[in-house]
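Sample entry as discussed:
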Amino acid sequence: MSKLEIAVQKLSADVKMPGYAHEGDAGLDLYSTIDCTLLPGRRVLIPTGLKLAIPHGYEGQVRPKSGLALKHGITVLNTPGTVDAPYRGEVGVILINLDPKASYEIKKGEKVAQMVFNKVEYAVFTEISELPATTRGEGGYGSTGKR
């Protein structure tokens, strides 16, 4: 497996570095730097205390933790959230509580999301008068599902 080098700036000494839970995992864990109560239906920006220098040609995708989603209805609102290579601000995680009744207590140092790094392809657009035909054509949402 190839390794991508990411320079990291911790905004305080007690910030947890991102890390992989197991060898071979695709996503590395991101941690909260605050205690916070997330009320039902509410959203909050959770700081990670990290700034990253992602190499040009890559992005960092912020994704939900499956355990938080299944057990508590906590997910990343703009999933996947993209951290672009030129961005040098603090990485934050927008969490939402989809549980209709229960609040969720986020603790400082708790895993709140994961990040996966991906190569980015840059598109070059060419305007044409008509697109080439395909077997699907212009079928809309759900057009390939059950009838």
Remarks:
- The beta strands are 7-10, 28-31, 36-38, 43-53, 58-63, 74-76, 81-84, 90-97, 104-106, 111-119.
- The first helix runs from residue 66 to 72.
- DSSP finds one helix and ten strands in the chain.
- Helices lie at 66-72.
